Amino acid sequence: MSERVLEIAGLVRRYGDLTVLDGADLTVAAGETVALLGPSGSGKSSLLHVAGLLEKPTAGEVLIEGQPTSALPDRALTALRRDRIGFVYQFHHLLPEFDALRNVEIPMMAAGVRHDEAGRRAKALLESMGLGERLSHQPAQLSGGEKQRVAIARALANEPALLLADEPTGNLDQDTSGRVFEALRGMIAARGLSALVATHDRNLASRMDRILTIKGRKLVPA
């Protein structure tokens, strides 16, 4: 695996007088899964937000599939996030007024996919997540694990090259957490995605290709 889907070089991230990351470096190769291990408040979310182009670094560079992003205008950053990066968060952030199918269709339609094609792809994604009987259910009618699986399907809707997940099972009980994580890992493997997954769960982290942690405001092997 020589192609680098994500590169972070010399990352500095400050919030006022607080420095969270200082000279952090990271590469994620094509098809590689990397766990980012550490307790809440250690800087994992900040790193993911910068990697996902949701926040600008104080210093340093982020490259997506070899493309430097620091000088890109907002419109180009938005398109890159939409087309090449998928996000899964601790809380599902599903739109409560829409059913599971429509929640997964929306990102595709925002990217210009026709409604019938978006529906076909959303249905296939949800079925592959074991949710074929839940297509017309709204979030309030789904269990915690089901909602998170819908969120994973939504993150994969635009066929991203990179998946970023921030404590994707942190709001679930242990048994449900394991099932959702295995579903996530299976989808990553089936699509040959690169993934950076932040977690505090060492057991889940151990199932990925590499484990990193934040120490001294830098990324080091765990």
UniProtKB/TrEMBL annotation:
CDD domains: ABC_MJ0796_LolCDE_FtsE (cd03255). GO terms for biological process: lipoprotein localization to outer membrane; protein localization to outer membrane. PROSITE patterns: ABC_TRANSPORTER_1, ABC_TRANSPORTER_2. The keyword RNA-binding does not apply. Keywords: ATP-binding, Cell inner membrane, Cell membrane, Hydrolase, Lipoprotein, Membrane, Nucleotide-binding, Transport. Residues 6-222 form the ABC transporter domain. Its EC number is 3.6.3.-. It comes from the Bacteria. It holds the Pfam family ABC_tran. The keyword Transferase does not apply. GO terms for molecular function: ATP binding; ATP hydrolysis activity; transmembrane transporter activity. GO terms for cellular component: membrane protein complex; plasma membrane. Belongs to the ABC transporter superfamily. Macrolide exporter (TC 3.A.1.122) family. This is Lipoprotein-releasing system ATP-binding protein. It comes from Parvularcula dongshanensis.
